[in-house]
Design brief:
- The protein has 18 helices and 16 strands.
- The chain is an alpha+beta fold.
- The strands form five sheets. Strands 8, 11, 12, 13, 15 and 16 form a six-stranded mixed β-sheet that branches.
């Protein structure tokens, strides 16, 4: 991750050069040629899959006056080149906003179905996220809400608005994706309450009522795991990019540091089997308050109940105001349109394909769902998702000796959940799932440069070399410098 920090630091200096390339800097960077009249540039951070290529071929075949030309940025230094070109005023018309990982030699890239969406603490090498918020606020990107609203096949009523509103910057939507997962923290409802948000004080109040030797998360969670999994993805909230101010000198961030300092530096080394049994024993015996999870469908609601042996709640990550602490993790191709694009309506013709209806309904003859769907942006696909889950549940009920019970998959792959019968999916799970979707208000979009600054700054506090106040001041000063460089 530190390599990406260095890359961003260099690019940030270039991005402040008023789009001219900075004189001498431009001489050292070989910029691509200006596109010909009637050509749109598609910046590909990932190897172009057969699916994406088919979209581009279909576009070029149906548009006589405008053609799409792909520019490849999928190599190791591709994102750096793209940032430098943006700073020099060579802005592509359409951009992919996330690279999932470096291409694997000798392995064909298949497209959306192969795009890896990680757990928050399990990110592949070479993954890269474009500086979305800064690009939007600097005016590089086009607001896509008007295009959705005026599209005869969509409009706001044709999409699941909560998924897209989470990606807004100052009320504008500057990138589009087709599907998401929800990252959240879950716990037993009888302990955490029926809620979709809480503060750190709320969390600690609930935790204080638990037996001695209980833990908030897994007993072997380390400071780094908690920081990277719970804290780093939400650090942007401590920056007011519009005003150019750092907000780390706050009571909330002090509480975050105190919370992190309660975890060990290193985990006790144990076998995977011993670790899983210990975690499961603690969960089932009320010694662990929360567990991280990803939610994509109705079965995840049932599986959560199974894990705790009782009804689960999804309070998410604690926030300052106690609002939603859940995150949408985007999957599939993520596209943005440049504000300088000369063919915006034509660019939308390509971008819109990613949220068109594409999934088939449940096929009882197959006995399985026709597609791996996650949570789609398209509203009709979302409806078919719910219908498919209910039909699939009824199908599974007919396969087992006791119709109301069947084993789900485990969050621990080696666990034999066949010994843990559970109830079937119900209409109540539909309501719980939709409540979770509608109460998720943040997009998971990490800022590795900021995370590195904060993590390196708080290290001396954990080592006992700096006080809490000294650490807060150090973070505030270093992040203020970072904000000033990126304004």
């Amino acid at each position: 991750m530190k390599n990406w920090f260095l890359m961003l630091a260099v690019a940030a200096l270039l991005l402040t050069a008023c789009g001219t390339g900075g004189g001498d800097q431009e001489q050292r960077v070989e910029l691509p040629p200006e596109p010909k009249e009637g050509v749109m540039i598609y910046a590909a951070l990932n190897p172009v899959s057969r699916q994406v290529q088919s979209y581009i071929n279909a576009f070029n075949g149906s548009h006589e006056d405008v053609q799409i030309e792909v520019r490849d940025y999928s190599d190791e230094n591709g994102p750096q080149r793209l940032l430098v070109e943006l700073a020099a005023g060579r802005v592509p018309d359409i951009m992919e906003m996330r690279r999932y990982e470096l291409p694997k030699p000798g392995r064909e890239y298949l497209g959306d179905n192969e795009l890896y969406t990680p757990m928050l603490t399990d990110r592949p090498e070479g993954e890269y996220w474009m500086p979305y918020r800064q690009m939007a606020q600097k005016g590089y990107l086009e607001d896509l809400w008007p295009y959705i609203e005026n599209d005869p096949d969509f409009g706001r009523e044709g999409v699941i608005e909560a998924l897209l509103k989470a990606a807004e910057v100052d009320g504008g939507l500057y990138m589009l994706f087709s599907k998401v997962r929800i990252a959240t923290l879950m716990g037993p409802e009888d302990l955490v309450g029926e809620r979709h948000g809480w503060t750190f004080d709320d969390l600690m109040e609930v935790f204080s009522a638990m037996p001695e030797e209980s833990t908030i998360l897994r007993y072997n969670a380390t400071k780094w795991e908690v920081f990277s999994g719970l804290i780093s993805c939400a650090l942007d909230k401590y920056i007011d990019w519009e005003a150019g101010r750092s907000l780390f000198d706050s009571e909330e961030f002090r509480n975050v540091l105190l919370f992190l300092n309660s975890f060990p530096d290193e985990a006790k080394v144990e076998s995977l089997e011993d670790t899983e049994y210990e975690i499961m024993w603690r969960i089932r015996n009320g010694r662990q308050l929360l567990e991280s999870t990803l939610v994509v469908d109705l079965f995840d609601m049932v599986n959560a109940d199974t894990l705790w042996g009782k009804r689960a709640a999804f309070p998410g990550y604690p926030t300052k105001e106690g609002g939603s602490g859940n995150f949408f993790i985007t999957a599939g191709n993520i596209l943005a349109m440049s504000a300088t694009c000369q063919y915006k309506e034509e660019a939308w013709d390509l971008i819109r394909v990613h949220i068109k209806q594409r999934y088939r309904p449940w096929s009882s003859s197959a006995g399985t769902r026709a597609e791996a769907m996650l949570i789609p942006v398209n509203r009709e696909d979302y409806r078919l998702n719910i219908q498919s889950d209910l039909e699939h549940a009824r199908y599974l009920d007919n396969l087992v000796e006791t119709p109301d019970f069947y084993p789900p998959y485990s969050i621990f792959p080696d666990w034999n959940y066949a010994m843990l019968p559970i109830r079937h999916v119900s209409k109540d799970d539909v309501l719980r799932f939709e409540e979770l979707v509608n109460n998720t208000t943040q997009i998971y979009w990490p800022n590795d440069a900021l995370a590195n600054i904060v993590w390196e700054s708080i290290g001396p506090y954990f080592a006992g070399d700096k006080t809490l106040e000294e650490t807060v001041k150090l973070v505030q000063n270093r992040v203020t410098l970072y904000v000033n460089e990126n304004q």
